[in-house]
Design brief:
The protein has 133 residues and is of the alpha+beta class. The chain has one domain: Roll (Pnp Oxidase, Chain A), CATH 2.30.110. Helices cover 32% and strands 32% of the residues. It has a 7-stranded antiparallel β-sheet with strand order 2-1-5-6-7-4-3, sandwiched between helices. The protein is globular. The mean pLDDT is 87.
Length: 133
Amino acid sequence: MFEDLDRARYISFATYRADSSLKSTATWVTNYKDGYAFTTDPTSFKVRRLKANANVIVTASNVSGKAKTGAVAHHGAATLLSPEETADVDRLIRAKYRVSYPLLISTGEWWRKLRGKATTESVGVYIQFPPSS
């Protein structure tokens, strides 16, 4: 796909708000099928925005979501994945981020349980890009 996204530890995933402004979020990403994918909370704002507008902009970024110097903005469309596909993406994310995943994700799940919050199942987000001309 895109070499810069293949190498990226984080991406800036930008979705469109109702007023057409962009909202970016840093996320982990993995290669999936002929695009990229990640998992997230199904009640997150990015999921709500995707349901209204599937168009997205993806850029290689740092952990805070700031685009890397000279990073290319890739325009694509995102869709939500089935539970089976989400499980596949989760396995790929766990493999790619094998050190960070247990520290960040598992710790967050532990804190939710400690505070009496129910753990939330994830949903996969699949990003495809138009063919190059």
